[in-house]
What we know:
7 helices, mainly alpha, 170 residues
Amino acid sequence: MDVLLSILALLFIIIGIIGCIVPILPGVALAYVGYLCCYFCSFSQISTTAVWVYLALTIAVSVLDYILPAYMTKLSGGSKAGQRGATAGLIAGMLLGSIVGAIIGPFVGAVVGELINDGKDTSRAIKVGIGSFFSFLVGTGLKVILSFVMLLSVFGDILPVIRDWFVNLF
């Protein structure tokens, strides 16, 4: 059973890392499922506290990824229309199921929202769109980093040599 759980752990985490970039897959959540698979191995050195901490981080990063486009739109000087546009663009891009749609959706939505709000200020609308695009990069980066940390932890737990090296390193 440990071999199956170890293989599943690595598969879920690798698919999770891919899912951090591909919008149709819940990347960091899949990586967490892989982390749990490793936790349930009989040889696991993963603590229950670590499981709860990674769960909290997974939820926080996932929620932040949905909130960030509207927040960054506001931070870059956008109006409520730009925030709503960024959120609508994010949802529309994700529904399209393509990477391009999820990347460009918040940008286009924020720009369109700002142009509807104030059609005369194109440069501000583009600035707001760039802020929304930056939020995509930050959200994706956080998900990828968390997933890679879980991957390293699982590798450290599955492979005793790596575990010993990791323990001695830190």
